[in-house]
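A further point concerns the way the authors explain their paired sequence and structure data. Each protein is reduced to its one-letter sequence and a matching series of backbone shape codes. An entry of this sort, consisting of the sequence and the corresponding backbone structure tokens, reads as follows:
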Amino acid sequence: MKFSRGLAALILVLFFHTTLTAEYLYKDEVIHNPEFNKEINKLGQELYEKTGISLKLVMIREVPHGKHIVEYEEELMKDFHEPTILLTFSELDSKVDILANDSSLYEYFDKQQVLSPTASAVQAFIIAIFYSSDFESFKEIAGNSGGTIIPLLAGKAKKGEQLGKYSASMYNGYADIADQVASSKGVTLENSAGNANKITMTIIKTLFYGILFYAIFVYIRNKIRSKRQASES
């Protein structure tokens, strides 16, 4: 059987295409969406070319038995030699983490902010009022806001929309880290999703405040109604 040049070229093209698409969406056991893959790799490629920092996304079904998510990330890090930031999501464990292979990389982005469970300062303040045990914990909770992953992940998804929720939240977080790193390095990303992130988080905040104000309204209305009924009786 003859091995034509055309066939050889096709194999090379497929090989390099596979290598490229696996570059920044390093592992995907969850989404399996070519468009998602393309957008992550496009943004990751530009970030690396302009800053020399590799931002990789890992999406797995479950952390291997007996391992913590950080231990799993540390194992993956052994394969990377360039400055690397790993954003990892484990679906069944409901865990998200960010790990860098050089501590100096944390200077270029705010890990605590990206992984914050609250989207806004007001939301963080309200949660701090209900859940803090002392003033120190109040300051810690109230000062931790601006999350771009967990607020989206925590939202309820209708049947069949789970994968959409995962892809939106992880792309949102990935883009947030990329934008922060680029800004810290003084460069601009043409594939930046900064405006889209702002719109997404504005929607989340609007929904939160809407639910909050409605709950307050119902509470006050019920209080007034119960007092009125008490006085009438």
